[in-house]
Amino acid sequence: MTESVEQLAAVRDAIARAAGSQPPATLVAVSKTYDAEAILPVLEAGQRVFGENRVQEAMAKFPALRERFPDIELHLIGPLQSNKAAEAVAVFDVIETVDREKIAKALAVEMAKQGRTPRLYVQVNIGEEPQKAGIAPAEAVAFVARCRDVHGLTIEGLMCIPPAEDEPGPHFDRLADLARAAGLDRLSMGMSGDYETAIAHGATSVRVGSAIFGARPKPV
Ligand SMILES: *Cc1c(COP(=O)(O)O)cnc(C)c1O
């Protein structure tokens, strides 16, 4: 059996265990940097939800895979530039990285134009790191409200990537608090190193790449 398929099964088991009596978190298999050939066995093993962090890379790989597996659900988990909004709306089913006014506006325009309504998450820069994307925690609740009231967008939940050097638990709790304050109940948090912790702190979806596909050749 392909190694990624064994690892997929192990991750699924761990997610089920971490859930306890709760509904299990959705597994977003992060396939960035892996080509279609590497993704195929994971599709054949039944995985349908995938995450990519670049619009161009997703457009190069997924249309062909979707011909064979029309029920793929593709998530954008990397930063979005407003000049890529049209392509993002066309190719993604979920956009997890709405983090500023300009993007909210560009997505609203494209969704109206294309008649497509990808589900949306607001990304929060939970550790307030200067180099990281995401809206500041202090502005997150108001931003969710503006997405709805000004741009007519339905926001499904919040997403975050805690600082690599910190204990993730307190950051996950803070994201859950912000979601509650914003009236949202979906939380995209947790990656290969901390998805079980994230589930214990309320994650409803986890984004897991290297624990399934193996270490990526270069950090992305
Ligand atoms: C790459 C990436 C992941 C997956 O990371 P792993 O550590 O390989 O599981 C999750 N979320 C985002 C936003 C990413 O860019």
UniProtKB/TrEMBL annotation:
Pyridoxal 5'-phosphate (PLP)-binding protein, which is involved in PLP homeostasis. It comes from Aureimonas glaciei. This is Pyridoxal phosphate homeostasis protein. CDD domains: PLPDE_III_YBL036c_like. Gene3D superfamilies: Alanine racemase (3.20.20.10). Residues 8-217 form the Alanine racemase N-terminal domain. NCBIfam families: YggS family pyridoxal phosphate-dependent enzyme (TIGR00044). Coiled coil: none annotated. GO terms for molecular function: pyridoxal phosphate binding. The modification N6-(pyridoxal phosphate)lysine is found at residue 32. SUPFAM superfamilies: PLP-binding barrel. Its cofactor is pyridoxal 5'-phosphate. Keywords: Pyridoxal phosphate. InterPro entries: Ala_racemase_N (IPR001608), PLP-binding_barrel (IPR029066), PyrdxlP_homeostasis (IPR011078). Belongs to the pyridoxal phosphate-binding protein YggS/PROSC family.
